[in-house]
């Protein structure tokens, strides 16, 4: 499998989706999902031009950061984050896409390193009301955004969702549209220090539809690295 060719194909699909929706490809950030992928595969993707990588587990991310410490990479936490892993997550990641409670957000804030750098965070919304998935319910998102906006070292940048898996990407479109609309509602509340410019939505099988509905970050693993073993 040629990772470089796969990345080129994914970028072509991103560009085509942007053309259809009147957007610019440079406004969509491709986050390569590297769960279970060894460091040498990540290095291949880096050499092919990728700079953003998403991990689901704190311990696995720590091992890969050590192995790839010579690379200038932006690391994204895209999986469920337990509160007791907030401190190591704060040290490892530049972005956390999966903030789903004030308790977790507060722990991340309290775990700030001495440098004073802000951590970019997204609030995860469970749009499908699936018990197997984490995320805030729609009617709770505005209040959580209000609470997180008061934390000094977190920069609330947007929303994230993992919608129900449906074979036909068109059937997922309403979920992406709802996330975009939720961001608009929060923006209209004019919370201080909040600008929800980012929507993290869309994976290998549906990222084109997500882009057409406003995604600024797509989380793509299989289309780049192939099926996980």
Summarize the structure.
With 229 residues, the chain is α/β, with parallel strands linked by helices. It has 9 helices and 8 strands.
Care to describe what's here?
- The protein is of the alpha/beta class.
- The chain has one domain (3-225): TIM Barrel.
- The chain contains nine helices and eight strands.
- The protein has helices at 3-21, 39-47, 58-67, 86-92, 102-110, 141-148, 173-188, 207-212, 222-225; strands spanning 29-33, 52-55, 74-77, 95-99, 119-125, 154-161, 198-200, 217-220.
- Helix 4 (86-92) links the parallel strand 3 and strand 4 (95-99).
- Helix 4 packs across helix 5.
- The model has no long low-confidence stretch (mean pLDDT 94).
Strand content: 15-25%
* CATH architecture verdict: Alpha-Beta Barrel
Which term fits the overall shape?
globular
Biggest pleated sheet: 8 strands, parallel
């Amino acid at each position: 499998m040629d990772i470089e060719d796969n990345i080129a194909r994914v970028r072509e699909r991103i560009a085509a989706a942007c053309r259809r929706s009147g957007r610019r490809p440079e406004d969509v950030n491709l986050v390569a999902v590297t769960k279970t992928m060894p460091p040498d595969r990540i290095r291949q993707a880096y050499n092919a031009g990728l700079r953003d990588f998403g991990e689901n587990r704190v311990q696995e991310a720590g091992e890969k950061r050590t192995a790839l410490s010579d690379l200038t990479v932006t690391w994204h936490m895209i999986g469920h984050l337990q509160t007791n892993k907030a401190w190591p997550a704060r040290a490892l990641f530049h972005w956390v896409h999966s903030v789903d409670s004030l308790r977790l957000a507060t722990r991340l804030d309290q775990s700030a390193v001495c440098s004073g750098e802000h951590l970019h965070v997204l609030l995860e919304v469970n749009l499908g009301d699936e018990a197997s998935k984490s995320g805030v319910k729609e009617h709770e998102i505005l209040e959580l955004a209000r609470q997180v906006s008061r934390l000094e070292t977190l920069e609330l940048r947007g929303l994230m969702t993992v919608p129900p898996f449906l074979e036909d990407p068109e059937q997922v479109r309403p979920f992406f549209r709802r996330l975009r609309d939720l961001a608009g509602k929060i923006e209209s509340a004019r919370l201080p220090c909040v600008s929800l410019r980012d929507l993290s939505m869309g994976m290998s099988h549906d990222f084109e539809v997500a882009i057409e509905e406003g995604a600024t970050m797509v989380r793509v693993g299989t289309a780049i690295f192939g099926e996980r073993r």
